[in-house]
Amino acid sequence: MDDFNKLIDRRSMLVGTGAAVGAAAATSLPFGEAFAANFPARNIQVAIPTRAGGGADRLFRATSGVWKKYINTNFEPSFFPGAAGRVGYEKYMGLAGADGHSLLFGNAGPEVLNWVVKPPSFNLSDLVYFAMVDQDPGTIFVDRNSKFKTIDDIVAEGKKRTLNVGVSRLAHPATLGALALAKHTGAKFNAIPLSGGRNTIAGVTTGEMDFGALPSGSVVSRKNLKIVLMLGHNNPIPGRSDNAPVINDKFGMNLPPMIAGARAYAIKKSAIDNHPDQFKILVETIQKVFPDPDFIAAYKKTKAPLEYVGYRGPDEAAEFVKNTMAVGRDFKQFLTGKKS
């Protein structure tokens, strides 16, 4: 409730005082320059559509802890777990102010698939991802004691019988990658949601699942697991993944990269339209974070491979969202568990 009230109070302050401050400044400076000169005027509020302490939280703190050096303010997170991210997005879009002091930080890959399953209350074009922080490709993996040693073994067996693939949830890029492979090869895979990465790994380890599909970052550090296929356009960690092949190269497919970990900052489009100079400052300063040694050290503490990290701007983010949702629509009946 405190987080909810914080966003409402922030919005009220913008409505009640923002216009007056802007009008006074505009008497001596052009409108855009006035707001840019005073930006940021306070701490930046960030809605995070998941629980505190998770992967998004860790990466938010790694980036914002360095970003504040370049933008000269602090970042205040509010956590809104629930409904696979839907709760956080709905609250942000409904309550956050339409300027550069209100942002969202989420995992764009799985979270945009929410809108394939069920459209949101807001217009999707009103939310803009402007800074992707990392790209962790989805993978297909097995336990090292499994009879399946390669992806060819899995596909061959899947043509004989239906294989159970453990996934963290149905509406997820890694799940889409497994389903797309089955469709392309004629194998039969039954995706079973196991409520999170740990449970998915446990299902594969015990043999209850024939194999699993998760972000590579969830798998690569576990010595008992073997990645047999990368679901991106490349393998960023060949030495730590048994040189796993890439889905398009291996099977002659043209699948968009199924990036299962795609943490990104987003903002209301109205904030960009109303305050383009503030948005410019956000974009210019976030880019300074990635080469900063302090950020590299902070990112390493998350234990995710450094090869995943790197700035990708609004155009790349928009292309990623479009492609992910397009594949999601192709497999919508499997993401909901119901036939459309």
Oligomer: single chain
Residue fraction in strands? 15-25%
Distance between the termini: 36 Å
| Helicity level | 40-55%
- Low-confidence runs (pLDDT<50, min 5 residues)? 1-35
Number of domains: 2
CATH superfamily of the largest domain: Bordetella uptake gene, domain 1
The number of E-state strands comes to 12
CATH architecture of the largest domain: 3-Layer(aba) Sandwich
- Please tally the helical runs, counting DSSP H or I stretches of 4 or more residues: 16
Q: Over all CA atoms, what is the radius of gyration?
A: 21 Å
Strand order across the biggest sheet? 2-1-3-11-4-12
Mean pLDDT: 89
Q: The biggest beta sheet, please? A: 6 strands, mixed
CATH fold type of the largest domain: D-Maltodextrin-Binding Protein, domain 2
Structural class: alpha/beta
The level-1 CATH class of the largest domain: Alpha Beta
Order of helices and strands: HHEHEHEHHEEHEHEHEHEHEEHHHEHH
C-alpha geometry: globular
